[in-house]
Design brief:
333 residues, 7 strands, globular, L-phosphoserine phosphatase activity, 13 helices, HAD-like_sf
């Protein structure tokens, strides 16, 4: 009897350990920075139905593609796109080599600290600034410039490194999707070679899974070494209708999930949700004027107007940043 009771006790203990641990694992929150609600639940339900074998919505591993806009979706974009801050800092750094800039706009205004006047020329002025600061060097040199800047530059409002201005709930979402065998891509209007040097460390997304705008490059031999030299000429704009084109060229599969925050992402969400089978689209709606910025239909940065209407009409998930996110940035945890 003693031996029998011992065996039963061991069996009972094993049962508790195995099934108790399973129960605990099931209760672990993979999205702890998300408040419980429709947005969080829609994500969990979508992932469950496309990953459960035997489900009519099951999606094979190779087709589990999720695409994310960067500016305003994975990290902040106010008061100006961060890549533009990089370009403005580069103007100051390069100014000693270009004395002619003191009498030439938009550079003259920038050197006086008058960013508003410098950008008054709109896209033409921005293009001039970008070409002057992003071209005329090898791809390796540009990569190092980006790495040096991202390691030291601070956001003008929060005084935090730009890599701390990423959204903690979205970092958790990236991890959650990859834990369920999704391959995650950045598809951004930002420069592809601006994002690649730091995207893997910050987001866990390797360089080959970054899609973005680009300028032309040219193969040359310099001092007996093969290099790629960045030319002052646009190659591809990965924004709006360009995003589905970029996805097709770089990824070669239609995503089953797409995440954005502005009208610039609308075509990407439309393209992704138009495929067969279960699909998911999510817009991050900037509604928190205290912890972040509140903006949508009338904003010159990250405008969400037509996309907001279409999301509501199509039943896409709309994240209310103020209500749906417990914290916004990693340093708030």
């Amino acid at each position: 009897m003693t031996m029998k009771r011992t065996l039963l006790a061991v069996f009972a203990l094993g049962f508790v350990l195995v099934f108790g641990n399973l129960a605990i694992a099931e209760t672990i929150d993979s999205l702890p920075s998300w408040n419980d609600g429709k947005s969080k639940q829609s994500i969990i339900e979508f992932v469950a139905k496309v990953t459960e074998k035997g489900s009519p919505d099951f999606v094979p591993l190779e087709e589990r593609i999720a695409v994310f806009d960067n500016d305003g979706t994975l990290w902040a974009e106010q008061p100006m796109y961060f890549q533009l801050f990089f370009a403005l800092d580069r103007v100051k750094e390069l100014a000693p080599q270009h004395p002619e800039w003191e009498g030439k706009e938009p550079f003259a205004s920038l050197l006086k600290g008058d960013v508003k006047s410098a950008l008054a020329g709109g896209e033409k002025s921005i293009l001039e600034i970008v070409m002057a600061t992003h071209a005329g060097m090898t791809t390796t040199e540009f990569e190092q410039n980006v790495k040096d800047w991202i390691a030291t530059a601070k956001h003008p409002t929060t005084k935090r490194p730009y890599t701390e201005m990423v959204y903690q709930p979205m970092l958790e979402l990236l991890t959650y999707l990859r834990a369920n065998d999704f391959k995650t891509f950045i598809v951004s209007g930002g420069g592809i070679e601006f994002m690649r040097p730091w995207a893997e460390e910050v987001y866990g997304i390797p360089p080959e899974q970054v899609v973005g705008s680009s300028i032309k490059t040219k193969f040359e031999m310099k001092n007996g070494e093969p290099v790629l030299v960045r030319q002052p000429e646009l190659n591809f704009i990965d924004d709006k209708a360009g995003k589905p084109v970029g996805i097709n060229q770089h990824i070669g599969r239609r995503p089953i999930a797409a995440f954005g925050n502005s009208d610039g992402d609308l075509e990407m969400l439309q393209w992704s949700t138009a495929g067969k089978g279960s699909r998911f689209a999510l817009y991050v709606h900037h509604t928190d004027s205290i912890r972040e910025w509140a903006y949508d239909r009338k904003s010159s940065i990250g405008r969400l107007d037509k996309g907001l209407d279409e999301a509501q009409a199509n039943g896409w998930t709309i994240v209310d940043m103020k209500l749906d996110w417990k914290v916004i940035y990693p340093y708030e945890k």
